[in-house]
Amino acid sequence: MTIIVTGGAGFIGSNFIFHMLDKYPDYRIVCLDCLTYAGNLSTLAPVMENPNFRFVKESITDREAVYKLFEEEHPDIIVNFAAESHVDRSIENPEVFLDTNIKGTAVLMDACRKYGIKRYHQVSTDEVYGDLPLDRPDLFFTEETPIHTSSPYSSSKAAADLLVLAYHRTYGLPVTISRCSNNYGPYHFPEKLIPLMIANALNDKPLPVYGKGENVRDWLYVEDHCKAIDLIIHNGRVGEVYNIGGHNEMTNIDIVKIICKELGKPESLITYVEDRKGHDMRYAIDPTKIHSELGWLPETKFADGIKKTIKWYLDNKEWWETIISGEYQNYYDEMYGSREGMK
Ligand code: NAD
Ligand code: TYD
Q: Which Pfam families does UniProt cross-reference here (predicted)?
């Protein structure tokens, strides 16, 4: 079995590669990643020497390079993690989100059509459903919830999902889609809420909470997401969408307070800043389908997962300190330097 994992030098893709190489010693895993600011080759150092692993530095938008890779590897399965993934960046500059997330998906699926494939799996997000109101805790996203996006990021992911379903209906491509809630865990790029707060708190820097910090996300430990995708690509029904979520809703401010407590840092570091434009209020997944069809359930409780995550950031300072001392610093200054509340 040969699996091409795109975006495998990023947060979830790298965790997925570790999971697969560990669990299936006879599988060949090929990582296709063009190493944007979010891709980090050092993340894959533990598997670089593994004879069952190959890294290829190319973009999923490069048709020629993608076709060449299919000719070389004859993959059975494609798992597409490659994407521009940060909502704030999509608000500043939507275009690259359209190129990578939509066109890149089309190129990969064209390759699948041309060379034949057992499964194309699209890693999507609960953000395609838009948001839920805070005063309706009875509402959850199911696979039937209409697509109703808010940000350029979620719109580009939704467009890709529709294209994936269209390639299934029109060309009979054997596809599956998973829509997962917010992940956390090792190798999470420090521009996202949890790793950003851990890194800032460790450096005694302000902790920038957007708006009132009341927005709710449904947090899932990354390993549980990887296990769900593993189940879907092996046992999921072709043409189907599967929601993945942990029934673990928390407000942003509660998350930040937990991080302060775990690190022994004062809550006075918390700084309320100007809100994100179009900020989604609440995400909440109903994972009944993947549970009843494939037997998936989240295994890591948030109380344990956040401790493991914080320990990982303490034990792997070099990984994130290298990131925040480089090019990312310019982004941070641009994004937060002029933000109301941080001035
Ligand atoms: P990430 O930003 O950490 O990593 C993205 C990876 O894709 C990087 O390694 C980057 O170099 C690579 N990449 C970007 N453009 C590329 C291109 N044109 N060609 C090849 N590689 C390219 O993202 P992540 O958080 O690991 O998310 C992975 C996927 O999961 C994304 O599709 C995202 O939409 C989805 N998702 C993420 C979350 C979350 O909480 N992080 C939740 C649900 C779904
Ligand atoms: P993020 O990690 O960017 O994920 P997403 O927007 O995909 O859910 O943000 C999670 C939540 O945290 C979101 O409601 C925005 C908020 N947030 C802050 O309050 N401050 C920050 O500095 C960041 C990056 C996010």
A: GDP_Man_Dehyd
